[in-house]
Structure prediction request, 96 residues.
Amino acid sequence: MTVTSRLPEPVHQAWDWQLQAACRGADERLFFHPAGERGQAHDEREAAAKRICASCPVRKRCLDHSLAVREPYGVWGGLSEDERSALLGPVTHRGR
Prediction:
C-alpha cells in the first residue's frame, strides 16, 4: 500500500496563497527597484510597497517563502532585500 502522507503537496496548494495576496494586481514595479534608483525615490517606493504588505492576509507566507528561497530582490512579506539579508546572514558555501 502506498503511503501518500509522505508525498509533497500538489503544486497548486504550495502556491495558492498568492491568490490572496494584497499585492495581486498591483504594479510590480512598486516592489522591485529600477536600476540606479536611490535616495528619496527609493525610500518612497519601498514605503508604498510595505504599506500594501502591512494589510496583506498572507504576509507571513510570502515572507517565509522569500526567506526559504533567499529571494535576492524586491519587497516580500513587508521586508526589503537588505532587511531579509540581515535576518539570514551571509550565504555559506559548503566544501570550500
